[in-house]
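[agent] plan:
  1. take the single chain provided in the ticket
  2. run structure prediction with default settings
  3. attach C-alpha coordinates to the ticket
  4. add a short note for the reviewer (M.T.)
[agent] executing step 1
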Amino acid sequence: MSLGFPVIDGHTEFIAHIGYPTYSFKSPLIYNPYFAHAGINAVVLPMACEAEHLDKLLGGISLLRNFRGALITMPHKVSAMRVVDVVSTVAMVAGACNAIRRDERGQLVADMFDGVGFVSGIKNKGFDVRGKRALVVGCGGVGCAIAASLADVGVAELSLCDLNVRAAQALAKRLQDHYPLVLIRITKADPSDQDLVVNATPLGMTDQDPLPFDVDRLNPQTFVGEVVMSKQETALLKVAKAKGCPIQVGVDMLFEQIPAYLSFFGFPSSDAVTLRSLAAVTYLSE
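[agent] step 2 finished; step 3 output follows
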Protein backbone atom coordinates (compact mmCIF):
# COMPACT_ATOMS: atom_id res chain seq x y z
CA MET A 1 0.00 0.00 0.00
CA SER A 2 1.37 3.43 -0.90
CA LEU A 3 1.91 5.80 2.00
CA GLY A 4 1.34 8.77 -0.29
CA PHE A 5 4.71 10.41 0.24
CA PRO A 6 5.58 13.28 -2.12
CA VAL A 7 8.12 12.82 -4.90
CA ILE A 8 11.38 14.60 -4.07
CA ASP A 9 13.05 16.57 -6.87
CA GLY A 10 15.27 19.60 -7.31
CA HIS A 11 12.45 21.98 -6.38
CA THR A 12 11.49 20.26 -3.13
CA GLU A 13 11.51 22.34 0.05
CA PHE A 14 11.99 20.62 3.39
CA ILE A 15 10.97 20.96 6.99
CA ALA A 16 13.47 19.42 9.39
CA HIS A 17 11.91 17.41 12.23
CA ILE A 18 14.62 17.77 14.87
CA GLY A 19 14.82 15.69 18.02
CA TYR A 20 16.49 12.68 19.59
CA PRO A 21 15.76 9.85 19.41
CA THR A 22 13.60 9.86 16.27
CA TYR A 23 12.18 6.34 16.28
CA SER A 24 8.86 7.50 17.74
CA PHE A 25 8.38 10.40 15.29
CA LYS A 26 4.96 10.30 13.65
CA SER A 27 4.70 13.81 12.17
CA PRO A 28 6.26 12.76 8.82
CA LEU A 29 3.43 10.21 8.52
CA ILE A 30 0.91 13.05 8.79
CA TYR A 31 2.55 15.90 6.88
CA ASN A 32 3.99 13.97 3.96
CA PRO A 33 0.76 12.23 2.90
CA TYR A 34 -0.96 15.61 3.12
CA PHE A 35 1.73 17.29 0.99
CA ALA A 36 1.36 14.55 -1.64
CA HIS A 37 -2.45 14.83 -1.58
CA ALA A 38 -2.38 18.64 -1.85
CA GLY A 39 0.31 18.73 -4.55
CA ILE A 40 2.75 20.62 -2.32
CA ASN A 41 6.38 20.04 -3.26
CA ALA A 42 7.69 19.73 0.28
CA VAL A 43 8.73 17.01 2.69
CA VAL A 44 9.25 16.59 6.44
CA LEU A 45 12.56 14.89 7.20
CA PRO A 46 13.42 13.40 10.62
CA MET A 47 16.83 14.53 11.88
CA ALA A 48 18.32 12.68 14.85
CA CYS A 49 20.22 15.48 16.57
CA GLU A 50 21.70 15.09 20.03
CA ALA A 51 21.58 18.10 22.35
CA GLU A 52 25.19 19.21 21.97
CA HIS A 53 24.86 19.50 18.18
CA LEU A 54 21.65 21.54 17.94
CA ASP A 55 23.24 24.94 17.41
CA LYS A 56 25.50 23.69 14.63
CA LEU A 57 22.69 21.81 12.91
CA LEU A 58 20.27 24.76 12.88
CA GLY A 59 23.04 27.16 11.90
CA GLY A 60 23.95 24.94 8.95
CA ILE A 61 20.60 23.87 7.54
CA SER A 62 19.10 27.35 7.87
CA LEU A 63 21.58 28.47 5.19
CA LEU A 64 20.08 26.06 2.66
CA ARG A 65 17.81 27.80 0.16
CA ASN A 66 15.20 25.03 0.25
CA PHE A 67 14.95 25.07 4.07
CA ARG A 68 11.40 26.16 4.98
CA GLY A 69 11.70 25.60 8.72
CA ALA A 70 11.85 23.03 11.49
CA LEU A 71 9.62 21.10 13.83
CA ILE A 72 11.31 21.02 17.24
CA THR A 73 10.70 18.22 19.69
CA MET A 74 12.36 16.72 22.77
CA PRO A 75 14.95 17.43 24.04
CA HIS A 76 15.32 20.71 22.15
CA LYS A 77 12.14 22.73 22.81
CA VAL A 78 13.82 24.95 25.41
CA SER A 79 17.37 25.06 24.06
CA ALA A 80 16.24 25.98 20.53
CA MET A 81 15.09 29.34 21.89
CA ARG A 82 18.69 30.50 22.20
CA VAL A 83 19.45 30.21 18.48
CA VAL A 84 16.48 32.13 17.06
CA ASP A 85 16.09 35.82 16.26
CA VAL A 86 12.38 36.42 16.87
CA VAL A 87 10.12 34.79 19.48
CA SER A 88 6.31 34.89 19.61
CA THR A 89 4.57 35.98 22.82
CA VAL A 90 3.19 32.48 23.42
CA ALA A 91 6.62 30.90 22.99
CA MET A 92 8.15 33.54 25.27
CA VAL A 93 5.62 32.81 28.01
CA ALA A 94 5.96 29.05 27.51
CA GLY A 95 9.75 29.35 27.64
CA ALA A 96 10.00 26.91 24.75
CA CYS A 97 9.21 26.52 21.06
CA ASN A 98 8.22 23.64 18.81
CA ALA A 99 8.46 25.35 15.42
CA ILE A 100 11.02 27.58 13.70
CA ARG A 101 10.79 29.17 10.26
CA ARG A 102 13.07 31.38 8.23
CA ASP A 103 11.41 34.66 7.28
CA GLU A 104 11.94 36.80 4.21
CA ARG A 105 14.85 38.62 5.91
CA GLY A 106 16.61 35.37 6.77
CA GLN A 107 15.77 35.58 10.46
CA LEU A 108 14.74 32.49 12.42
CA VAL A 109 11.28 32.95 13.96
CA ALA A 110 10.15 30.70 16.83
CA ASP A 111 6.62 29.84 17.92
CA MET A 112 4.86 27.28 20.12
CA PHE A 113 1.76 25.37 18.95
CA ASP A 114 1.13 22.72 21.62
CA GLY A 115 -1.24 25.07 23.43
CA VAL A 116 -2.78 26.26 20.16
CA GLY A 117 -3.62 22.67 19.29
CA PHE A 118 -5.13 22.00 22.70
CA VAL A 119 -7.27 25.15 22.64
CA SER A 120 -8.38 24.56 19.05
CA GLY A 121 -9.47 21.04 19.98
CA ILE A 122 -11.65 22.06 22.91
CA LYS A 123 -13.09 24.96 20.91
CA ASN A 124 -14.13 22.56 18.16
CA LYS A 125 -15.86 20.47 20.84
CA GLY A 126 -17.97 23.46 21.86
CA PHE A 127 -15.97 24.79 24.82
CA ASP A 128 -15.39 28.57 24.78
CA VAL A 129 -12.39 29.47 26.95
CA ARG A 130 -13.20 33.18 27.21
CA GLY A 131 -14.14 34.26 30.71
CA LYS A 132 -13.71 30.76 32.15
CA ARG A 133 -11.74 29.35 35.11
CA ALA A 134 -9.05 26.79 34.27
CA LEU A 135 -6.66 24.58 36.22
CA VAL A 136 -3.45 23.35 34.57
CA VAL A 137 -1.78 20.52 36.47
CA GLY A 138 1.86 20.32 35.39
CA CYS A 139 4.03 23.30 34.47
CA GLY A 140 6.56 21.60 32.21
CA GLY A 141 6.90 22.40 28.51
CA VAL A 142 3.43 21.35 27.38
CA GLY A 143 1.73 22.75 30.50
CA CYS A 144 3.41 26.12 29.99
CA ALA A 145 2.33 26.15 26.35
CA ILE A 146 -1.30 25.34 27.19
CA ALA A 147 -1.39 27.93 29.97
CA ALA A 148 0.02 30.57 27.60
CA SER A 149 -2.54 29.76 24.91
CA LEU A 150 -5.43 29.80 27.39
CA ALA A 151 -4.33 33.25 28.54
CA ASP A 152 -3.91 34.36 24.94
CA VAL A 153 -7.54 33.55 24.07
CA GLY A 154 -9.08 35.20 27.12
CA VAL A 155 -9.38 32.80 30.05
CA ALA A 156 -10.43 34.79 33.14
CA GLU A 157 -8.75 32.80 35.91
CA LEU A 158 -5.84 30.40 35.59
CA SER A 159 -4.74 28.13 38.43
CA LEU A 160 -1.33 26.45 38.16
CA CYS A 161 -0.15 23.37 40.01
CA ASP A 162 3.19 21.58 39.92
CA LEU A 163 5.28 19.61 42.40
CA ASN A 164 8.11 21.93 41.33
CA VAL A 165 6.74 25.11 42.91
CA ARG A 166 9.50 27.22 41.38
CA ALA A 167 8.45 26.14 37.90
CA ALA A 168 4.86 27.16 38.65
CA GLN A 169 6.02 30.49 40.10
CA ALA A 170 8.20 31.25 37.08
CA LEU A 171 5.33 30.47 34.70
CA ALA A 172 2.96 32.62 36.77
CA LYS A 173 5.39 35.55 36.54
CA ARG A 174 5.69 35.26 32.75
CA LEU A 175 1.93 34.98 32.36
CA GLN A 176 1.30 38.01 34.57
CA ASP A 177 3.87 40.08 32.69
CA HIS A 178 2.24 39.40 29.32
CA TYR A 179 -1.42 38.90 30.30
CA PRO A 180 -2.07 41.27 33.23
CA LEU A 181 -5.86 40.95 32.94
CA VAL A 182 -5.79 37.21 33.73
CA LEU A 183 -6.03 36.27 37.41
CA ILE A 184 -3.16 33.83 38.04
CA ARG A 185 -3.04 31.54 41.08
CA ILE A 186 -0.63 28.85 42.26
CA THR A 187 -2.76 26.18 43.91
CA LYS A 188 -3.09 22.55 44.86
CA ALA A 189 -4.47 20.12 42.30
CA ASP A 190 -8.10 20.75 43.19
CA PRO A 191 -10.49 20.52 40.22
CA SER A 192 -13.56 21.72 42.10
CA ASP A 193 -15.16 24.96 40.89
CA GLN A 194 -13.18 24.86 37.62
CA ASP A 195 -14.68 25.10 34.15
CA LEU A 196 -11.65 23.39 32.57
CA VAL A 197 -9.03 21.04 34.05
CA VAL A 198 -5.95 19.97 32.10
CA ASN A 199 -3.63 17.11 32.95
CA ALA A 200 -0.32 18.35 31.57
CA THR A 201 1.75 15.78 33.47
CA PRO A 202 3.04 12.38 32.27
CA LEU A 203 0.68 10.65 34.72
CA GLY A 204 -1.50 8.28 32.75
CA MET A 205 1.13 6.85 30.44
CA THR A 206 0.99 3.54 32.31
CA ASP A 207 -1.85 1.77 34.08
CA GLN A 208 0.11 1.92 37.34
CA ASP A 209 0.21 5.73 37.43
CA PRO A 210 -1.83 7.52 40.09
CA LEU A 211 -4.45 10.01 38.95
CA PRO A 212 -3.12 13.58 38.70
CA PHE A 213 -5.80 14.98 41.02
CA ASP A 214 -8.75 13.94 43.20
CA VAL A 215 -11.42 13.03 40.65
CA ASP A 216 -14.06 12.85 43.40
CA ARG A 217 -13.93 16.66 43.41
CA LEU A 218 -14.73 16.90 39.70
CA ASN A 219 -18.04 18.46 38.73
CA PRO A 220 -19.88 16.78 35.83
CA GLN A 221 -19.90 20.11 33.96
CA THR A 222 -16.10 20.48 34.06
CA PHE A 223 -14.29 19.91 30.77
CA VAL A 224 -11.31 17.58 31.27
CA GLY A 225 -8.39 17.66 28.85
CA GLU A 226 -5.44 15.30 28.56
CA VAL A 227 -1.99 15.56 26.97
CA VAL A 228 -0.88 11.93 27.34
CA MET A 229 -0.92 10.34 23.87
CA SER A 230 0.19 6.79 24.62
CA LYS A 231 -3.41 5.58 24.80
CA GLN A 232 -6.75 6.74 23.49
CA GLU A 233 -8.38 7.18 26.90
CA THR A 234 -6.28 7.40 30.05
CA ALA A 235 -7.60 6.33 33.43
CA LEU A 236 -8.34 9.98 34.16
CA LEU A 237 -10.45 10.40 31.04
CA LYS A 238 -12.35 7.18 31.71
CA VAL A 239 -13.29 8.36 35.19
CA ALA A 240 -14.16 11.86 33.96
CA LYS A 241 -16.29 10.43 31.15
CA ALA A 242 -18.12 8.18 33.62
CA LYS A 243 -18.94 11.25 35.72
CA GLY A 244 -20.45 12.93 32.66
CA CYS A 245 -17.63 15.38 32.02
CA PRO A 246 -16.85 16.40 28.44
CA ILE A 247 -13.32 15.26 27.56
CA GLN A 248 -10.50 15.70 25.06
CA VAL A 249 -8.00 12.91 24.39
CA GLY A 250 -4.31 13.72 24.16
CA VAL A 251 -3.83 12.90 20.48
CA ASP A 252 -6.38 15.54 19.47
CA MET A 253 -3.87 18.21 20.48
CA LEU A 254 -1.44 17.00 17.81
CA PHE A 255 -3.86 16.89 14.90
CA GLU A 256 -5.42 20.22 15.85
CA GLN A 257 -2.11 22.09 15.89
CA ILE A 258 -0.94 20.99 12.43
CA PRO A 259 -3.20 23.44 10.53
CA ALA A 260 -1.57 26.26 12.52
CA TYR A 261 1.87 24.81 11.74
CA LEU A 262 1.08 24.75 8.02
CA SER A 263 0.04 28.40 8.06
CA PHE A 264 3.14 29.30 10.07
CA PHE A 265 5.37 27.70 7.43
CA GLY A 266 3.44 29.44 4.64
CA PHE A 267 1.83 26.32 3.15
CA PRO A 268 -1.85 25.90 2.21
CA SER A 269 -3.54 24.72 5.39
CA SER A 270 -6.06 21.97 6.06
CA ASP A 271 -8.18 20.76 8.96
CA ALA A 272 -7.81 18.02 11.54
CA VAL A 273 -10.46 15.78 9.95
CA THR A 274 -8.71 15.81 6.56
CA LEU A 275 -5.30 15.24 8.14
CA ARG A 276 -6.61 12.24 10.08
CA SER A 277 -8.10 10.73 6.93
CA LEU A 278 -4.79 11.03 5.05
CA ALA A 279 -2.36 10.07 7.81
CA ALA A 280 -0.35 6.89 7.31
CA VAL A 281 -0.82 5.91 10.96
CA THR A 282 -4.04 5.19 12.80
CA TYR A 283 -2.83 6.22 16.24
CA LEU A 284 -0.07 8.52 17.39
CA SER A 285 2.21 8.45 20.40
CA GLU A 286 3.91 11.74 19.50
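[agent] step 4 note for reviewer: DSSP finds nine helices and twelve strands in the chain.
[agent] ticket updated
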